[in-house]
Amino acid sequence: MTLPALTSCNDFLDEKPKTALTEDQIYSSPEYAETSLQNCYKRWRESFSGNLHLLLVGSDEIQSGAYQALKEDGMRRGSLDRYDALLTSEVSYVETHWSNRWPAVGESAKLVKALRPLRDNSDYEGQLYGESCFIRAGLSMELAMIYGRIPILDLERIEQLTYARQPMKDVWQFIIDDLKEAVNYLPDMSQPERANRYAAQMLLGYAYMAAPEETGLRDFTLASQALGEVVNGGPYSLVEYYDLWDYNMKNTQESIFEWQFDNAWPNNNAVQFALGSRAVQSFFGDACYMSGYDHAVPTVWAYSDVEDGGIWEDGDIRRDENIRYDFEYYGRTPDLSNISWEDIGDDHDELKPHIKKYEDFRTDTHSGMGFNNMWNSGKNIPYLRLGNAILLYAEALNEIGQTPEAVKQVNRVRRRAWENSLPADKAWSEGMSQTQFRDEIMTERVRELFGERWRKFDLVRTGKFVEYVKTRNEWAKRSGTIAEYNKVWPLPLKELDQNDDIDYSDQNEGYR
């Protein structure tokens, strides 16, 4: 039985059982539940493939390439950075991330309802239930961070809740409760791309840190406890930073939850197609592993060294692992002559620094592997990993007054960044103040997690979104229109049209 790809959050309940079995009986079948879970994971994984760049741009870390910002789609594409009047509910990019997630939220909600009565029958049924809770919580958290208030898809309370948007406190409490259930029922270890208890603990810790302050649910003590379970009690260890982005080193000892890809369609992610250089593509063609179309590029702040007003310190190996500065290819360097048609004046950035960590040499004609097109890029993408967990744990410790221990945790990550030989002048001091740590940890997260899709969420949860984006993102700075309400996107028009429980007047503030 195949479920339709649904967009509206109430459509999925209109699908009637195709057999004499009730829907709960179908979804509680371990065989069907397993198939359904795989479909949910696949849906979630899609948000990390071809459209990953849409959630990378619009921050102070990464912005749209010049052509995309100034020309593409009648300048609507650039509204994701400018935050101007063209960023509306009708923009297709806004709808993409909604429609990618809601079907999986709906399907996981059905699984939770059907499996809840069975969760204590066996370890396997408990695991299926725990995974269903994890998926529903993870996707709902992403949707809440992207769009703000969302419907709560608890099918046991659907008559009470309907499909209306719910208060933020209720949404985040629902997410936290789901993650608690996932922690209780998931196994300690799992197969790749399957959630385990530590993945749920890490997301739970992040939820306690990301829940808006006005909900009253932000709790750094509980966050430190959840993350401490991962950092101090989990079976994970830091690996060489190089290994994280080596396609021969999939699912390292640092990986807590990692999206699985390869170079063959439909399991490739095509990320390099979006992130590579258009000048390289025009000069060397699609079969050069550095080629692409500049859909997301580092901001000047994110690619510059400290002495130039940026973030990179001398000797930090993460700089050249994360960002490409040199476009020489087998003794030749491209120029811009092949893309003069873009007509963007002096704004060309096709040969300025680019995101490097997703480059996949297997797609290059010189690899001899026969893929010969950067669209076939298929590196695994770490979603939850120990390096991130350590930095979150350190941030939580600092917020509860344990700054010296927080510094020790950060230095674990920084030691790796200097190939396990951290110079004394690069080690953070245990005498650092809580305020200084609070500022510095956000930049350290960029160094460690550059291009891994956390930056905008981090800016929003720490209240720095408008302040930093309007000064560091070139297109937001030029526009001058970014406002506090832009920390979330508008609800898509398609959802407003189809959902009878969300009125047009309920659109997010500032949008139409």
Q: What is the 3D form? A: globular
What integer value in Å does the Rg equal? 23 Å
Strand content: under 5%
Secondary structure tally: strands: 6
Q: Give me the number of helical elements.
A: 23
Mean pLDDT: 95
Largest beta-sheet characterization: 2 strands, antiparallel
What is the terminal separation in angstroms? Answer: 38 Å
Structural class by sheet pairing and helices? mainly alpha
Order of helices and strands: HHHEHHHHHHHHHEHHEHHEEEHHHHHHH
- Strands across the major sheet, in which order? 1-3
Q: Any low-confidence stretches, pLDDT <50, length ≥5?
A: 1-7
* Percent of residues in helices: 40-55%
How would you sum up this structure in a few lines?
This protein is mainly α and 512 residues long.
Task: Summarize the SSE layout with pairings.
Elements lengths: L22 H6 L1 H17 L6 H4 L5 E2 L2 H5 L8 H4 L9 H24 L7 H25 L10 H4 L6 H18 L11 H14 L9 H14 L7 H4 L10 E5 L11 H5 L2 H7 L12 E2 L1 H4 L14 H5 E2 L29 E2 L25 E5 H14 L3 H15 L16 H16 L5 H7 L3 H8 L1 H6 L13 H6 L14
Antiparallel strand pairs: 1-3, 2-6, 4-5
Helix pairs in contact: 2-6, 2-7, 6-7, 7-9, 7-10, 9-10, 10-11, 10-17, 11-17, 17-18, 17-19, 18-19
State the main characteristics:
512 residues, mainly alpha, two-stranded antiparallel ribbon, 4% strand, globular
Task: Report on this structure.
This protein has a two-stranded antiparallel sheet. A two-stranded antiparallel sheet has the order 2-6. The chain starts with 22 loop residues before the first helix and ends in a 14-residue tail after the last helix. The chain has helices at 23-28, 30-46, 53-56, 66-70, 79-82, 92-115, 123-147, 158-161, 168-185, 197-210, 220-233, 241-244, 271-275, 278-284, 300-303, 318-322, 386-399, 403-417, 434-449, 455-461, 465-472, 474-479, 493-498; strands at residues 62-63, 255-259, 297-298, 323-324, 354-355, 381-385. Helix content is 45%, strand content 4%. With 512 residues, it is mainly alpha-helical.
